[in-house]
Amino acid sequence: SVAPARKVVQTKGGAAVLKICVAWVFFKNGQRPTEAVVHQFFEINEAYFYELEGLEYKGRSYVGSKHACPGLVGFLLGYARGEYGLTLPRHTEEHAVLVSERK
What we know:
This protein has one domain. The chain is built from five helices and two strands. A hairpin with a 2-residue loop joins strand 1 (56-57) and strand 2. It is mainly alpha-helical. Helices cover 48% and strands 4% of the residues.
């Protein structure tokens, strides 16, 4: 079965910080994010996932970063794959799974 077009996430540039901040509010408050928030979060470049989780990516270390938000990517990935059934770009999903499994 083919996912409806509105369920297919495309990587887009721009407004990444805003998308991250909005998603973080739901995460921090333990609230269920809207489908739009989850969809927009996964439009960002996967490099942000590593920064948010305080990991290393392409020779750049974010370990110990003061703006890391461990658990955010996995929190949103659960909603994307589960309740909302979003189809993420393959590379985006691979990186999201990778960072959410590394602790």
